[in-house]
Design goal:
Blueprint lengths: L5 H8 L6 E5 L5 H10 L4 E6 L2 H14 L4 E5 L6 H7 L12 E4 L6
Parallel strand pairs: 1-2, 1-4, 2-3
């Protein structure tokens, strides 16, 4: 059995300060908090989960870790809320840069 390698996952995302990213299937926020460190205070992590209970746990965990740049989003299996939020035009009419979306729950090949 292969172990998960969060360091490799995060390195592969090539996150930079100021980026807006989504962690789809965020659960309790294990990756969300680590992504938040990489995008910094000027960036945003949209932590999406479909279970309201997990959203509450995520909010509590992010509060305890001081990750104020993580925004919890309750999604559904058919509504990609973070994609709409990130791609929404700014008041000046320009679109935000394309976001990186991480699906952190996956099985090794």
């Amino acid at each position: 059995m292969q172990e998960e390698r969060p360091d490799l996952v995060l390195a592969a995302l090539d996150l930079k300060p100021g980026m807006k990213v989504a962690d789809v299937g965020a659960g309790s926020g294990y990756y969300s908090s680590r992504m938040a460190e990489r995008v910094g205070k000027s960036g945003t992590v949209y932590a999406v989960d479909v279970q309201p209970e997990m959203i509450e746990i995520l909010k509590q965990n992010m509060s305890e870790r001081g990750a104020g740049n993580v925004k919890a989003v309750l999604g559904t299996e058919t509504d990609p809320k973070p994609a709409r939020r990130i791609a929404r035009p700014r008041p000046d009419g320009r679109r935000l840069p394309r976001a990186r979306i991480s699906r952190t729950r996956c099985s090794p090949p």
